[in-house]
Amino acid sequence: MGASKPAARPAVIAGDGVRGPQGMVWVPGGVFQMGSDSKLAQPNEKPAHPVQVRGFWMDRSHVTNAQFRAFVDTTHYLTTAERKPDWDTLRVQSPPGTPRPPEEALVAGAMVFVGTDKPVDLRDWSQWWRYVPGANWKAPQGPGSSIAGKDDHPVVQVSYEDALAYARWAGKRLPTEAEWEFAARGGLEQATYAWGDDYQPDGQPMANIWDKSARGRFPVVPAIPVVSAKAGGAIGTQPVGTFLPNGYGLVDMTGNAWQWVADWFRADHFQQQAKAQGNNKPLDNPAGPQDSWDPDDAGVPPAAPRRVTRGGSFLCNEDYCLSYRPSARRGNDPFNPMSHIGFRLVSDAPKPAGQGDSDQVRREAARLGAGWDARRKPQP
Fold it and tell me: Which residues form a coiled coil (predicted)?
């Protein structure tokens, strides 16, 4: 299938510190089909339903190690992974009746992808993840690892709480799930990927994911890992902007590292939204549900706190999660930093000159909302 194309390719508007915030690009807002009815979509992505968002500025890339270091150097902030775990935050993620661990077991650290030495049953993620004492944003794989020479990589091993702390310092905020997906699509309506419908147009990799044609079967890690400058070999993040930007000028909206967004995660949230619409009128700037619900995470209470992450990471692959798609979504413990989760922020700074006002957005929403199903793009 050929790549999906917008009716008119968006104009990339980049902030320069005078006309818009430095390092951010303008996402014009509008009406789009959120979620997916594709055969590739998970149940929590369905059904596709019309949503409208207002224009906003978004970080061109993930927040990088260099940017996060500037925040820490200024504020002396201590991340979640650098603090002794709090039993109250662990308890709500544990099955009822779980005993409190001994004090010596509550050691600062974080979850690290360690891989396996042979193919395993992919239903048990604990085989390739480990809690590693001493792992944090400066040592993402634990003691002995480093981010030296990786200033332009996404910061990882940051919790939702850490992302909020950085956002307050930067005078920005986390995007809503609707804003994130609208931005990730880059002006393409219901395309499979952030760049279109072809996985590798002209044979070119488009995101840092686990490409089994180069890396082999997930999650097997060879004794001597294959590393390349592009996707299809690296076990970990790569420099932001390694791949082409999407239609709005945003890089790495999918792949490289998952991204925290503001919303609580409910597996049935899109179904709830679609039912609430009734007349198929686009939802206006949805801010997400009021609580969490995830019945699919084995060993965790379904109502345990979960925040949405979007975009997939260097571990995503066709055999396991397929989350390098704009509609893919998952929930994560907001106090659980991991070696494949980062974030980017948005700003409500004034819109660029010449951008449509909110009345125009509302008129466009009304026009597109009527009979939306008849115009929906067929999915593979």
Answer: none
For residue 277, give Cα distances in angstroms to 182, 282, 365.
19, 7, 14
Report the mean per-residue pLDDT for the chain: 87
Q: How confident is the model at residue 356 (pLDDT cuts 50, 70, 90)?
A: low
CATH topology of domain 27-95+103-375: paralog of FGE (formylglycine-generating enzyme) (3.90.1580)
9 pLDDT band, cuts 50/70/90, is low
Identity of residue 3 = A
- The tokens for 58 are 């978004």
- Residue extents of the structural domains in the chain: 27-95+103-375
CA distance readout (Å), 207 to 226, 231, 310 = 17, 6, 14
Query: 25 φ, ψ to 5°?
Result: -125, 155
For residues 332-354, average pLDDT: 94
Q: In whole angstroms, what is the distance from residue 349 CA to residue 86 CA?
A: 36
| 20/13 Cα distance (integer angstroms) | 9
Distance, in Å, from the CA atom of 307 to the CA atom of 195, rounded to the nearest integer, reads 26
Cβ–Cβ < 8 Å for 142, 81 = no
**Residue of 110, 169, 116 whose CA lies nearest to 333:** 110
Instruction: Tell me the C-alpha distance between 217 and 236, whole Å.
Output: 16
pLDDT at 365 over 50: no
Residue 165 phi/psi, 5-degree rounding, is -65, -45
Amino acid of residue 369: G
Give the count of beta carbons closer than 10 Å to the beta carbon of residue 288: 18
Tokens of 360: 């125009």
User: Per-residue pLDDT for 176 more than 70?
Assistant: yes
Q: Which H/E stretch holds residue 56?
A: strand 56-59
